[in-house]
Every structure is written in structure tokens, then in C-alpha cells.
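U., I forgot to send this yesterday:
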Amino acid sequence: MKAPLKGIIDDIKGRAPCYMQDWTDAYGSGARIFAPTFYIFFASALPVIAFGEQMSRETDGRLSPVQTLASTAICGIIHSIFGGQPLLILGVAEPTVIMYTYLYEFAKGKSDLGKELYLAWAGWVCVWTAAMLCLLAIFDACSVISRFTRVAGELFGMLIAVLFFQEAIKGLMSEFNIPKDEDKSLFKYEFQWLYTNGLLGTIFAFGVLFSSLKSRKARSWRYGTGGLREFIADYGVPLMVLLWTALSYSVPTKLPSGVPRRLYCKVPWDDDSNYQWAVVQDMGKVPLGYILAALIPAVMIAGLYFFDHSVASQLAQQPEFNLKNPPAYHYDLFLLGIMTLICGLLGIPPSNGVLPQSPMHTKSLAVLKRQLIRKRMIKSAKECIKEQASSSEMYGRMKAVFVEMDTAPPTDGSVNNELKDLKEAVMNIEDGGETKGKFDPEKHIDPYLPVRVNEQRVTNLLQSLLVGIAVAAIPVIKAIPTSVLWGYFAYMAVDSLPGNQFWERFLLLFITPGRRYKVLEGVHASFVETVPFKHIATFTIFQLLYLLICFGITWIPIAGILFPVPFFLLISIRQYILPKLFQPQHLRELDAAEYEEIAGAPQRNRSLRELEGGGGETDEDFYDAEILDEMTTSRGELKFRTVSFREDRPQVFPESTSRM
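Result:
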């Protein structure tokens, strides 16, 4: 462990030389900077609105989308200006919603706290949480985050996905019921209209779910131009929310007002909302015993924020992104403590680093930087072609452009290594290689560009300001049906499953031995071929039981606030118990630091059943009817399938007039 404050001081020294560059690097992007800005704004704002509605239901309106949006905007602006790693996106997350729900359940049951002092007591919880986060940063606790391996991260992600599903189901069921504290005699709460509201809610929720999932895969669609597919993939989810909100206004006018049910929250400029921003005045009214008791939930929240914030920061700075500026884990954690204190005093839930928005932000800036470098390199290459320069001269100029645009330029040796493939492609012109005679910069540069990220603060600041503007747009946001948000909760749950190896291994348990060859035919995780199935099953069942324990704890009244404890215990379990149950090489594969995949091998005779030496279905079971289905169309025609085109058989390709 370093000396106190050593980590924070080192972070400040490392980031200080980059600070001005973090602002100036954005200006060279021009109007292109708005694409990642709006992309991250929508990715941040929609979940925050959904969490605000969840908080409103769980706290009887004490908190709402106004407070969650305000917290996200305030913390985002502070972090974008003063934070160490500007690529990190902050927002109110599901763990915060869970903890604030438990705090409300506890407070409203105590006569000397009650609903009136709930936010004041939560403010004291934030004070303690802020103090602990600052102490963790001062005493170099961030070095411990490396002990949270994939097994912990996947379990935490699966728990959040399950809680999303739970909230979506609870919300959808509530569409068929009368809301709490509402007048049951109202016309819109008669049985037929409640049933109609529930049916419409079901249609809107599933519509948002399935249309959002489809739009996310737009890049692989066969139809539409490349620009259109990319736009739908990036902005399809908010577009689907807008689409289904618009469709909710197409229902017959004979329906009573309030069907379908829509968001309800007070606008921030109402007189009744002023108390939300003056909670600090009531913090002195909280009894001393409860101020001290606030230390217990504060420990849980501090641990959650420490884990969630650090992991989000790690994923935003993955080695594959080739970032040039140093990290600032200790300083950012210290700043998180300051922001948590500010939020507590304002009576709003704190924000922390969120997933998947943080790595999404880095990825969007990597695409932006790639576009800028590509544009300059293509221009340079075309000038060389026009001047009839040699291949070596062309490569030299493109390399000079790359070095010029690469912030904090690396050594010449590393540049040569990163541009090695591009150099070979250019030099192959003279050798009659794969490029065969003419080098086309538009086609041949793209595959060989190294990953670079436009590391700057402007996109984070702008998207945070847009979230702040969304607070003023609450009257418009209130037009969204609540059922649309339940569908969005379900979408967030389903969308988080791909890439989670725990989920992939869980599905593998349901595949019979005779059908496991199907896994090998597609792209699959490396552990499928390197770890025996019985060990995969044992490891997965252990994770499943642990997940059920964590989920069960969330159902315990009041004591559910302790649900983060099992994740802290998992550090010791992973370090001392699991190595005794699994061979080291198997454990390294099942709990690998990186997500490694193997390309599929479409060969029917290559089966996991054979690798495992197990039995199962006979060849006849999966050859007869299955092969017949594959070889006939839905109209019953027999397909004529060739392995490949012969050289003497001409192939006709559509001429490409534009880059897709």
C-alpha cells in the first residue's frame, strides 16, 4: 500500500499535463463531435428517466425523474471539468435505486423519522458515504479492484439484469391495478378501463422490447445504406421510445383520460418541489441515534460505488483502446466522494460511473478519431497517386500524417509496429501482391488503421448539459407511457446478457451432448474447447447458487440493504476456495481477464459429444429430418447448394457506387 494521498497526488501529476489538451483536442473534430455527444446523451438519459420512475413508485413520489436527471447532470458536469478520466460517464444506477428504496422503507416505519425526514436521513447516509469514499481514495484502496475478477463482475451484472426483469414484470402487472393512494372511485379505474390499460401497456412494453432489440442489430441488416443502418443501430432505442410514445396517442378518443397511464412527477419549478433542494435545513432535525445508524447503509453504498465506479473506469480504459493519457482511479474516487456529499446535501440520489455507457463513450470517440485520421491519410495518399510517387514515399507520408494526428506520439518503433500491415499493403503494389497493381486509399486504408481514441472532455460536458436541459423538459417527458419504460427495463436486461460468459455457460447446460456440436459451428468462447464440460457445469452451478443467494437477500425487508456483502466475500472465495476446487488452467479459462472467442468450424462430425466421450443422440436423430429441413425451402423445393464457384464459372457482383 502506498503512503496516504500518494495515489491521488500521482494521479494529479499524471493528468495535469494532459488537461489543456483534453479541451483543445475536441476542436479539431468540428461538427463531428456532436455525433458521440448525442449518442451518449440518449444512452444516459433514458435509463436515468426509467430509474427516476422506479424511484417515484418506491418512495411514494419523494424522488422522481427530476432528481435523477439533476444528479446525473450535476455530477456529469463536475466530473467532465474536474475529473481525472473524462471518458468515464456518470449517472444514477440501479444499485443506487435499490439502496434508496431500502432507506425509504426503513425511514417511513420509524415515528421519529417518517417520510418527512427520509431525505434528510439519506443526506446523512451520503455524508458518511462521502467520508468513506475519500478515505478509500486517500489510502490507495483502488489497488484492490484488480481482485474483483470476471466471476464477480458477471455475477453483479446478472443480478442487475434479474432486477431489471423483476422491475419490468412488477411494472407491467401494476398496469392492471389501481396505483397506491389513488381514488378508487375514479372512472378510469373501473374494471374495463383497468383491463384496457393493462392490455395497452402489455402491447407498448413488448413493442419497445422487441423493436429496440431489432434496431440494435441494424448494422448487420441486408437492407439500407451503411449510413442509415449505422444511424438506426446508434439511435434506434430512443427512436423506438419516441415511436411507441407517439403510437400511444393514436388510441381511440373514447378512452378516459389516464389510459394509457403516463409518467407522473412534479415539475422542478413548482412550489411543492422547493423542499427537494433544501434538505440540508432538516438534517439537524434527525436524531443523533439515526445519524450514527446511517453509518451501516453508508458502508454498503460506499462499497458498491467503489466497485461500480472503478469497474466502469477500467472498462472505459481497456488496453484495446490504446489510450495515451494515464488513468486517475484514486483521484476520481476522491472526487466521487465530494460529489456524493453535494448530492446528499441537495436531497438527490448520487451518481457514479455507469455501465455500459462508459465503454460506449470511449468506443464512439475511437470511431470519431478513426474517421479524422482516415480522412487525412486518404487525402495524403491521393496526392501521392496524383504526383505518381513511389509506394515507399506514399507510406512515408501516410505515416507522417498518423504520427502528427496521434496525441502524445509514441516511439518510432511502436508506430512502425502498429502500421506494419498498412506498409505491407502499400508495398504490395509494386510486388503485384494482394492489392494487385492499383492502391485505392478508400478501400485499402480502412482495415489497417490502429485503434485511436479522441481523448477529450467536451463530449462528456455537452452530454451532461443536455441531461440538465432535460430537467426543464419534464412536461414533455411526462408524455411517455409508464409501460414504455417497463419495456425499456426489459430491454436493458436482455441487452446486458450477450457477452456475459455466465449466461452463455448457463445456456450450455441445457444443450444435450448430441447437440453441442452446434456450439462449435458458430463463434464460441475459448473455454468451450479447453475446459471439460463437467467442470464448466460445476463452475456455472456455483455461480447460479451464489446469484440466487444474492437475489434472495434483496427480498429481505430492511436487511436487504446488505446485498453487496456477498460480492465482497467473493474476493476471498475466489482467492482461497475456488483454486482448491478447480485446476489452475481451467480456472484461468473460466475466470479469464479477457473475453476470448474462437471462430466456428462448420463440420457436423466435429462434436462436443466426441470431445467429451459421451453418448446422446444418434447420427440418425439429427441427420434425417434436420438435413431435409436445411435442404428444402418453405415451399418444398429442393435447394441446389454448391461448395464454391469454379474459376471457369463467371461471377457477377453489383457495382458499388458508394462506400457502405
